[in-house]
Design brief:
single chain, alpha/beta, D-Maltodextrin-Binding Protein, domain 2, 2 domains, 7 helices, 11 strands, elongated, binds adenosine-5'-triphosphate, binds 1-O-pyrophosphono-5-O-phosphono-alpha-D-ribofuranose, ATP_PRibTrfase_CS
């Protein structure tokens, strides 16, 4: 008997770009998936042996790393933040491009927390942030926020932020400037390593379908 493959996708901005790629790889959700009022989180697919779960971006990595979902799509920012050993990210899907950057007030820093070897940073990415500063001999004290990081410097919560930047509009509109890029970001196909060992044919075929899409996009 074929078991059900659970494929995890983030509910927000990557999804619109991911759906056409998923369809070309044979993962097509039931029509109810597209109904914005639908509160269901798990959806059947055209292929009766596949289901899609729609969760928050960080949780895609958690579901797949723990084997609750066998595969999924998530940004490289999330993969790098968690650094789960059970996650395999074999295909760069060339969608969801942005960058993870440090920003600070354009008019200079007024915080009392900072000195040459110690900074206070507001971010959703404390692990990546600490690692990046540590490699430069600086201890970053991270204040974890889940959104609206841009408010932190003006309200005295931190002197800098580490956040995703795409057009730069959010930084600009909040009086911040980008000072360094930590990581270029794009969305990846992720697979649970144990599931790949248990069901190499099915997950191998899935990886190959997405790889072929990404290769043909590069060749075009
Ligand atoms: N300008 C951007 N800002 C934020 N994320 C972006 C941007 N461009 C691409 N991304 C990608 O989208 C992902 C966020 O996905 P999504 O919006 O689905 O998250 P979410 O689950 O709604 O997040 P949240 O936890 O904030 O609710 C990021 O991890 C990143 O890889
Ligand atoms: O450079 P820009 O094009 O302005 O994009 C960057 C903004 O987009 C993201 O937030 P998002 O809109 O995903 O909302 P969030 O704060 O709820 O994560 C990110 O956290 C920035 O705030």
């Amino acid at each position: 008997m074929t078991s059900t493959l659970t494929f995890a996708v983030p509910k927000g901005r990557i999804l619109e770009e991911a759906l056409p790629l998923m369809a070309r790889a044979g993962i097509v959700p039931e029509p109810g998936f597209h109904d914005k009022k639908n509160r269901a989180l798990s959806f059947a697919c055209e292929d009766p042996h596949t289901r899609i779960i729609r969760v928050r971006a960080f949780d895609v990595a958690t579901f797949v790393a723990h084997g609750a979902a066998q595969a999924g799509i998530v940004g490289s920012d999330v993969i790098e933040e968690f650094d789960y050993s059970d996650l395999y990210a074999p295909v760069d899907l060339d969608i969801g491009h942005c960058r993870l950057s440090i920003a600070e007030p354009k008019d200079g820093i007024e915080g009392e927390f900072d000195n040459a070897s110690h900074l206070r940073v507001a971010t959703k990415y404390p692990n990546l942030t600490r690692r990046w500063f540590e490699a430069r001999g600086i201890q970053a004290e991270c204040v974890k926020l889940n959104g609206a990081m841009e408010l932190a410097p003006s309200l005295g919560l931190a002197t800098r932020i580490v956040d995703l930047v795409s057009t730069g509009t959010t930084l600009r509109e909040n009086g911040l400037v980008e000072t360094a890029e930590l990581l270029p970001v794009s969305a990846r196909l992720i697979v649970n390593r144990a599931a790949l060992k248990t069901d190499p044919e099915r997950l191998g075929a899935l990886i190959e379908s997405f790889r072929a899409l990404s290769d043909s996009a590069k060749a075009a």
